[in-house]
Amino acid sequence: MKKSIIVHPIEPLFDEHSRILILGTFPSPRSREGEFFYHHPQNRFWKVMAYLTDFPVPETIAQKKAMMLGNGIAVWDVIQICRITGASDSSIRDVVPTDLSIILDHAPIERIFANGAKAYDLYMKYSYPKTGRPIVKLPSTSPANAAWSLDRLIEAWSIIRPAGIH
Fold first, then answer.
1. How is the chain split into domains, by residue range?
2. Separation of alpha carbons 146 and 5, rounded Å
3. d(Cα 71, Cα 128) in Å, to the nearest integer?
4. Quick one: fold of 4-161?
């Protein structure tokens, strides 16, 4: 499979009430096709967030946006442009980071979380020197992270609750 240069096609999800920012690496092919974050049906992100926010698991993009924004949560990715093979984070090359000031300058973000080790590493390499803001590494909700059950993910991700989730 050829690595091609891909530009992030999804706008950041945030509003003027967002206090929590969750960052992934880069949208998978399924997310790019579906034009929204964590679109692969096996990704556990929406199940985890539904549990933590006490919402039903959202099925539509509108429901996902409402759940996140209604709980002060912003979602975006660390990478704006890169070369990637399929959905493999380990294949990411030639990174151009996203300009996180688009969110950080317009929302009262109190805490930043990384969805997985690669998002954390990329944030520390490319974004932290610009933002100076700490990030908390959480286990990836990706189906590739099969070692983590849904229950373990929910337990680990529950640390975002004190930041103000209703």
1. 4-161
2. 28
3. 25
4. Uracil-DNA Glycosylase, subunit E (3.40.470)
